[in-house]
Each structure stands twice: as structure tokens, then as C-alpha cells.
Write a structure and sequence with these properties.
Strand order of the largest sheet: 1-2-3-4
Pfam families: DUF6967 (PF22295)
InterPro entries: DUF6967
Shape: flat
């Protein structure tokens, strides 16, 4: 049985509340790829598995919001 292949793309701590975020690419044995967001808050984990269109939409919303706040690097 073939298992999923997971590649870590980024890991960082969010401000101001210090949640730990890891972004992973998951190549599923079933033949598709998803983006996994793992968010740790203390002992609790929240995991999102999303497809490319959802990631692009989410990324655009985050970028637009940050530009509106004047906090892009």
C-alpha cells in the first residue's frame, strides 16, 4: 500500500497571539495534491486540507487585507 507524501513548505509563528502554523504539500496516494495548513494553539491543532483554487482565493484575501493595513514586506 502506497502512503501519502508530505513536504513541509513553511513553518512560522503568527503574531500577535503566537499560533504555530505549518504549511505542507500533500501528494495523496490516490493521485491528487492538496495544501495542508496545520495551526497549533497550545495543545489544540486545527488542520485544513485545501485544493489549489481554494489556496489561491484564500491567499488573495490575505494579501488584499494586509495591503489595506499597510503591513506587507
Amino acid at each position: 500500500m502506497q502512503s501519502d507524501q508530505i513536504t513541509s513548505l513553511a513553518k512560522f509563528t503568527c503574531q500577535p497571539f503566537r499560533q504555530e502554523v505549518e504549511v505542507q504539500q500533500v501528494e495523496h496516494a490516490a493521485g491528487y495534491v492538496s495544501l495542508r495548513l496545520r495551526i497549533r494553539e497550545g495543545k489544540r491543532f486545527t488542520v485544513f486540507d485545501i485544493d489549489a483554487p481554494t489556496a489561491a482565493y484564500w491567499g488573495q484575501i490575505l494579501t488584499d487585507w494586509a495591503r489595506g493595513q499597510g503591513e506587507t514586506k
